[in-house]
Protein 1
Amino acid sequence: MGNFDKNSEKKAINRFILLICSVVIGIGISMQINIAEKYTGSKTTSQRARTLQTELKNLKEKREAMEKEIAELEHEMEELRGDGNFQKDVERQLQEQIDKYEKRIGYKKVSGKGIEVELFENLEADSSVLVNNYELLLALINKLNAAGAEAIAVNEERYVLTTQMQMEGGVLKMNGNTLKPPIVVRAIGDADTLEAAMNFRYGILWEMRNYYGIDAKVTKRNELDIPRYNQVIEYHYAKIVEE
Amino acid sequence: MYKKKVLKNNVILMSLLFLTALVVMQTKAMKDKYIYTGLQSVAAMGEDVAIQSQELNKMILLKEKKYEELQDFKTKYANGNQTAVLKETLEKRKMQAGYTDLQGEGVVIKLEDSQRELREGENPNDLVIHDQDILILLNDLKVAGAEALSVNGQRIVGNTEIKCTGATIKVNGFTYGQPFIIKAIGNPEQLEAAVLSPNSYGNILQTLYRIQIQVEKKEVKIERFAQ
């Protein structure tokens, strides 16, 4: 009798343990689902991914359309300026001057000989060393300018006189637009001089390689396109000094 | 004996259940509608969408400005005053390229090398101002909304280079010694904060290396780029 009692007692204990285990597992599973829901906005991951994908596609299409519209507006403007009855000498000269300054500002897409500097780093790491030390990019651009670069771009961002770099929420912004690795710097100018400035012993690329683990590859190019600066430079504090 | 059997049965049952669940998940994953995407890649996509929409907004703004410019041009053109319109545009472009003298509210920043003695393990280079320091300060000022900048009277434009040549620096091809003077036009409070606030690069130069930085808020005049 006593033996049987002991057996059933053990059984009861076992059942109880099983019950507790089930409860714990159940709570675990429901927590997992809840967390996943929070992240994805109560949709399954794949559904969310699909909506995001379509959204991305829409945005890209819209952007392309917008680019086209801007190009059309610019074209119309140029046509107006270059209108037939508009070609008096004074006006043509003025137009040439305007073109010259627009080129200097960076308002025109330019192409020519130059170099391309590709920067490589271990992108498996959580954050990019280059992005977190963007002063290296500033230094590199400065060196290119010292070597007589006529136009410089980092990825698709033109470097102009108002260009700024800053970190915003863990993202590097140049001209207010996001700059994502891999980073390629392109410069138009005398390719040999530019290349020499880059490969200078103990120069900027050496510093990047030795102190930051960033590798670089410099390539001379015969034909290089540099995009235009697509923002408006405005003045709120500065006024022209009247002579 | 009986107990062991029950336990065995339980284990078999559980593993079967688990296997079925796995098989179901896998088959679901093969369907086109349920492509496997990790939470991380979804987050990355979300980021991409945010970036793209931001950039789209900027482009819309640019388009509107271009449109206004064109309309403005058209009205003036229709009034038959082409030369005046062109002259106006030229003036604007010259200003944007840095080819006009500008004046306005702003700051004058004076930088001088540290006067303190070297500490153990320090390099004399740590206590002097370098081209890199000035580059970073200029960038910080631009972030703070500087509209025009000059270093020792040399206007900073897109092609400006700043070179360290020993005790002096070379800006736009001209050499200058100490002190280095940066002038900036823009909101004086924000410009001052850009070089003095606790998180700024200027603050590191000051507190760590005792580089002397003086900021004066006043009306400044910045000369044109002269090349």
Protein 2
Amino acid sequence: MSHPVVTGLGCVSPFGIGMARLRAGLTSGRPSEPPLVFDSAGYRVQGVLHARDVGLDPRNRSFPERLAELAFAEAVERAGIAPEALAPCGLALASTSSGWHLPDETLRPGRTLPPDSDTLTLSKSGPALRIVEKWGLEGPHVTLSSACASSTAAIAWAAERIALGDAPVMAVGAVDVVTEVVFAGFHSMRLLNATGTRPFATDRQGFVLSEGAAFLVLEDAEHARARGAQVLATVAGWGASSDAAHITTPDAAGITRSLRAAVQDAAYVPEDIEVYHAHGTASRTSDAAEAAAVAAALRPSGGRVRVTATKSSLGHTEGAAGLFSAVAAVDAIECGRLPPVVGVTEPAAAFSAVALTAASDAVAPTAPALVHASGFGGVNCSVVLDRPGRAPSRRRTRRCRVVVRIAVRADGEGPALLVPLADDALGASAPSDKGDATALERAMKEHFARTPGADRVTRLLGAAASAALAGLGHEDAAAACRGGLLTGTAFGSQANHARMWEAIRTGGGRHVDPLDFARSTFNVPASQCSSAFGIKGRVEAFLGPTAGVEALLSAADDIASGRAEVLLAAGYDAPENRLWRAEDDDDVPAGATLLAVGTAENAPISSVLEIVGSRRLSPSARGRTHAAVLDAVRDLGGSGGAAEVWVDPAGLEADAVDRLRTALDVPVRLLAAASGAASPLDCHLRAGAHLVRAGLDSVTVVTTARHAPGAVVRYGRYDGV
Amino acid sequence: MNESVQTSLVQLLRKHSEEIEARDIGPADVLGDLGIDSLSLLSLAVDLENTFGISIDDADLYGVRTVEDLEALLLGLRNGD
């Protein structure tokens, strides 16, 4: 039975390189220091925690990838996997700040780079792509950036790849570095503390900004057993939610939903959770919401749960925070000692369910452990870790058939339009009023009017979501709100970052508007839509030109494995958010393309497009991708094979299409997606519409792009049988 | 009340909330009722600091509930309290 276990871990932290330094540092902490990468003299708060003894100055342009590589190498070595045996391994990497360490190159709009420029260093996906290239990883690949919940989300994504049999081994990591944009942003929100982080204390006053990289190696339990690997912990389950409330004030009910979903996924009851590894930012409102959620989700009948919080010693490592908590949790399970909450002995009186871990609590149980992270926008993801040998209660498979219920395209030029998929009669039309389109649109407009952060991509995504929910009808729209909204974007809302950097450059960091910071994280457009429509399920932001397709595949997996009945998946982008471009990059059209996917069982007869199967491809590298495409197309072919194969060859070798045509005995048609994450989904819909109109049984669509993972998706006609 | 401070404050309040464009603002008005939520207040604080050349402590800002509270805080800081 496939289930994910942890066989390796590694990190680089403010305590130095490696787990031994982290373990020691988590019991003692260390003083903060002035930042080396900018001058903090003009701010109210000066201190940060830099990663230490890395052998590279934090000002070096390769600093983030260096941190990631060191942590990855330690984790893989600990797992006992030889570098030459890493090809089947996939990679999920979370980052929020990579690239922003070079603000004059990444955050000043309008730069055009020569074709041979090293763009990876400027990109949030850069550290992941370097690792893939250096170690030759050929498994499933993703970069996530869902604010400070990014890295628990990365663990969840990687655990799904193992549980669903997509890969035998997954490296999952996170890297974030101290940058002035992030420092000034948190400073403007009055969340920074100069000297220490005191989670859940009565006198808590924010956190010390920190940096580092952390990695886990997840592995199929059977694969680990077969090679004689030492299992360090079991990934027992995960859950995710969106607050659907305020953009920056966490909501106890939203966090509660995430914690409950993780506990239920692990098939535990709340009281089974022995230790809670808190997000614990020491913010007044965030800790209060989290403590209330802990009480509601983990001790509903009263009593206290043991809580620890790595930020008390480590500071806040931004998007990497959840992975540092997870690494600490696995290390605690292995060594039998919990890291304490440094500097805080008693929680605030109101936090009645919180029992803070003291240095003297060495014998406290270390598992089952629940690791939680929350982020701006109200995004939450929680992971349950347990001892080795803890078998899952049920097997996870792709057991449900998945159909595209509805597809919508918004470009801001008029109302969002349904994309014709069911039959010609539908045409490209405005959505029906089945789900009360007018009311939804009004709710969205009113919400966005109250939310000053609603920028163009948020409004495009909102228009598409509103039309899709209206078209789904009340019952399925409600199911979609329970399911969630997964998004892909190449450029996010980076115009907000540009404004922040402009404010820093021209007036100093104290001129940064916290609204720009709040709306700058990559999940915020989806999170704001979740607030507008009451979407309380999973909200996620995948990054890169093919990330919209990854959103679709992740949504399809959630449906297929029974996590949700209906989910929304979208790709979006707009030109103002691409702050630099390579000389040969195309223009970015503004647009959002959104698909609602759901189980076939309850689908209306008009849902004729079925997602029959899919394969994820590693980012193109070293001229081997066409072979991977060919394998995937054949693997997905089934007994009859696809009637046609549609290929976007942007990430393939020059002769790849010719080689595919020679190797495949079916028509191979060419696709050419525009820049941005919406267009590849449009390509899928074009192929799907052709399948329906031409009466074909199936079409396989191949999406590739430069410096991005690819996907092969086989669509079929769903006829209700 | 210092009139120039009051005028600047009202202008900034209007900038930070669409809800108060069409209405008068009185000293007893609660900021939340004017559409100034916790995030908008932080954004307003950045503008106030830069407009008046002052530095507002976190604790003082958290104590602000009404327009009057904000005026008192500003005048106190400008007078070197």
